[in-house]
Amino acid sequence: MTTTATPARTNVGLRHPELYKLLASMASASDQSALAEGISPLLLELIKIRVSQLNGCAYCLRIHTADSLAKGESPERLSVLPAWRETAYFDGQERAALALAEYVTRIDHAHASAPLYDLASAELTSGQISAVTWVAMSINTFNRVAISSSYKVAPPRR
Predict the structure, then answer these.
(1) Is residue 57 a part of any domain in this protein?
(2) Which string of b and e fits 66-77 if b means at least 16 CB within 10 Å?
(3) pLDDT tens digits along 92-138
(4) Domain count across the chain
(5) Domain range holding 121?
(6) Is residue 120 within 8 Å of 132, Cβ to Cβ?
(7) Residue 124 falls within a domain, yes or no?
(8) What is the pTM of this model?
């Protein structure tokens, strides 16, 4: 029996580094805009983690979970993040930002998900809505780069 090796995926970030650099610059600018609008560094990480959960991006999940823990996020809150609606762990601003991030990520269901946007607009300023939207779009793009390029995620060697 012959087996056919799976061809290696093209790492689009390495193939077009100028575009990857622009994406990193956009992500940094979106983070700075969110911070300037009053979004906390911990909430930024929660947004990135939640979007990466929805997209199934292990690479970004590993990075942003570690970043959030380093910034003081609790493992307990991270453990219930996928079910944030069912908990009392997140305040109004966090809940609104998570709803908006889900709305942006699941844009193919935007019309059916209008209540997510409505929830966000009840808690966030227009500047915060714009900034959170940009953060969500940035991490969605990074997720797509990592997943389509088949970034490898393995535990550290001991």
Answers:
(1) yes
(2) ebbeeeebeeeb
(3) 999 999 999 999 999 887 776 777 778 888 999 999 999 999 999 99
(4) 1
(5) 16-148
(6) yes
(7) yes
(8) 0.90
